Amino acid sequence: MKDVFNYLQTMTQIMKTMNRTVSVSSFLLDHGKKFEVTDASFPQIGKLKECFMNSTKLAMGDSSLTYCEGYAMGVIPTHHAWCVDSLGRVVDPTWESGSDYFGIKFQLEYVIRVTDETGYWTSILDNYHQYWPLLTGKIALDKAIAA
């Protein structure tokens, strides 16, 4: 797989063959966008494999950044969280390098609420702890997705 968008399209098609009309991949294709990677995108602040926590804490500490979640290309397309600045540039506190970031910006208040309610630094998109409220429509998009 060369790029995240192609990967998400493939995953959406696979999910459709399994009669899953809503999935993380289809939700991302419907509501996500590509974000720009720059030389300053990798400040190496947090620990590996803790992207949800690292990105939430970074956004909490810097009001100029927005929590973002989706898929990014490391060695392979990976479900991941990062932050973006006001110009849509990636600020990834977890990885040393990456490319092809495709995701959704989320309201920090919503991210913090999910963390508090679940007791976990968890995925907003694949929030199985609360039975996927975004994917199932249990939460209105304007209450979760940032402008």
Description:
The protein has 147 residues and is α+β, with helices and mostly antiparallel strands. It has one domain (4-143). It is 33% helix and 19% strand. The protein contains 5 helices and 5 strands, in the order ααβαββββαα. Strands 1-5-2-3-4 form a 5-stranded antiparallel sheet, with helices on both faces. Helix 1 (4-17) packs across helix 2.
What features would you highlight for this structure?
147 residues, alpha+beta, five-stranded antiparallel β-sheet, 5 helices, 19% strand, globular
**How many distinct helices?**
5
Strand count, sense and barrel status of the largest sheet are: 5 strands, antiparallel
| Alpha-beta classification | alpha+beta
Proportion of residues in β-strands: 15-25%
The arrangement of helices and strands along the chain is HHEHEEEEHH
How would you describe the shape? globular
Taking pLDDT < 50 over at least 5 consecutive residues as the criterion, the unreliable ranges are none
Q: Cα distance, first to last residue?
A: 30 Å
**Cα radius of gyration in angstroms:** 14 Å
Strand order of the largest sheet: 1-5-2-3-4
Query: How many DSSP-defined strands?
Result: 5
- Structural domains: how many: 1
Query: What do the pLDDT scores average to?
Result: 96
**Helix content range of the residues, please?**
25-40%
Briefly characterize the structure:
The chain has 147 residues and is of the alpha+beta class.
